[in-house]
Amino acid sequence: MTISVPRRQTACRHCSSPLSTVFADLGATPVSNDYLTEETRFEGERFYPLKAFVCDECHLVQLEDFRRADDLFREDYAYFSSISTSWLAHAKIFSDAMISRLGLGADSTVVEVASNDGYLLQYFQASGLRVLGVEPCRSVADFAINEKGIPTRIEFFGVETAKKLVAEGFQADLTAANNVLAHVPDINDFVSGFREILKPDGVACFEFPHLFQLINQNQFDTIYHEHFSYLSLLSVQRFFAANGLTVFDVEKIKTHGGSLRVFACKAGAKWEVAPSVADIIEEERQAGLDRPEVYTSFGEKVRETKRSLLELLISLKRDGKVIVGYGAPAKGNTLLNYCGIGSDFIEFTVDRSPQKQGMYLPGTRLAIKAPEAIDEAKPDFVLILPWNIKDEVVEQMSHIRDWGGQFILPIPKAMII
Questions:
Q1: How does pLDDT run across 239-258, given as a tens digit for each residue?
Q2: Does residue 218 contact residue 413 with C-beta atoms inside 8 Å?
Q3: Which of 86, 171, 181, 404 has its CA at 20 to 30 Å from residue 292's CA atom?
Q4: How far apart are CA 143 and CA 75, in angstroms?
Q5: Which CATH superfamily is domain 308-416 in?
Q6: Which residues form the Methyltransferase putative zinc binding domain (predicted)?
Q7: Max Cα separation, the chain?
Q8: Do residues 209 and 180 touch, judged by C-beta distance below 8 A?
Q9: Residue 404: left (phi > 0), alpha (psi -120 to 50), or beta?
Q10: Which stretches within 168-254 are classed as H helix?
């Protein structure tokens, strides 16, 4: 296997301060979404350092940058948002809430950045609103266009793209950007793009996993190369303000192990700042997210989470138990590669996405099969890799209880459920 020659990023991607405080060092791993085919699983893979730092100035947690965004988010990107029924339900609730809260109607325009396969915009379009998706990955964008009829631009978003869309008449009443803010290497250009595309009183809504929960729940597997940043409201409020956006409201939501939904507008827009903004900022300060100690101590929590999972799996294998995986998410590949869990522990994994079935996980080379493979194998244990949707998985696979099967959750500490 080949180790790449690193192009080290030594300065904060927002404020350019030197990066020296290590948040988590997960060794070297392949890119989490670089799934292998039947042919390429016999070839070498590139492994890249997976090391996160925190900026001592603006508190933005971020990776060393070894791959360009257009290398990571390719034409054949395999993650289709519509595969998860719970995520579709989340999208429908959000669209209904935004139409009501913002008074959106037939003359309103909704633009989603990182619109994936049209999972969200389909609900706004069904309500009669004008919609546009902006999505750099052709595989999912083509599905949105051809299968769901969602107009989609296949390109990366930033200031220039925003200005071009405004010139074409796509100035937005609402923009949505769900679970993409962490994926952009140039945060300043990306956020400034929303300033450009919004109408004077338009609203930009962002959802992202909350760094507060990542630390509290030992969610180290959410660290992978496609995520350039890990976000607190402290850091988000700062770089939004630097790029012409004001955070005026924030909600805690349960997705992805605990996320924030942040509402922002242009500086000087009509929206009043809600008490929720100060409340969450204070909660983060009380948790120490404005001090280095909480970041430097996280590494030992990561190592202990690894130990507890390996201890459980070793014990089960010594008892002759059969273990398979459920899911092939990016976070699962970080978990398996960092913990050194391969075919010596897990027979295979399954995934509902047809785009992943028949492929192999990067690094571990575990086969990805259809969920029916679990019924055939009748394993003793199923390791849930997308633990953020554990309730959905347990409900879908509840029949494994019929033969005495049980589930394993790896995060925040390995446990049998």
A1: 999 999 999 999 999 988 89
A2: yes
A3: 181
A4: 12
A5: NAD(P)-binding Rossmann-like Domain (3.40.50.720)
A6: 12-73
A7: 66
A8: no
A9: left
A10: 187-197, 211-216, 233-242
Distances (CA, A) of 58 to 15, 127, 177, 234, 345: 7, 40, 22, 8, 41
Q: 3-class SS at 102?
A: helix
Q: Which two tokens stand for residue 198?
A: 């919004």
Query: What does pTM read for this prediction?
Result: 0.84
The two beta strands, 109-113 and 172-178, are parallel
Q: Where are the domains of the chain?
A: 2-65, 81-295, 308-416
Backbone angles phi, psi at 358, to 5 degrees: 90, -5
DSSP 134: E
Inter-residue long-range contacts of 46-49, CB under 8 Å, 24+ positions, other chains counted: 46/1, 46/2, 46/3, 46/4, 47/1, 47/2, 47/3, 47/4, 47/363, 48/4, 48/6, 48/225, 49/6
Q: Would you give the end-to-end CA distance of the chain in angstroms?
A: 36
Segment 186-237, tens digit of pLDDT: 999 999 999 999 999 999 999 999 999 999 999 999 999 988 999 999 999 9
Amino acid identity at 254: K
Torsion of CA 338, 62, 209, 201, to 10 degrees: -160
Amino acid in the structure at residue 10:
T
Selection from 358, 363, 356 nearest residue 386 by Cα: 356
Q: Are 152 and 132 in contact (CB under 8 A)?
A: yes
What H or E segment, with its residue span, contains residue 46?
Answer: strand 46-54
Written as one letter, the residue type at 383 is L
Fold type of domain 81-295: Rossmann fold (3.40.50)
* Helical (H) or strand (E) element with 280: helix 275-286
Structure tokens at 2: 């080949």
Identify the DSSP state of 231.
B
Alpha-carbon distance 308 to 25, whole Å? 18
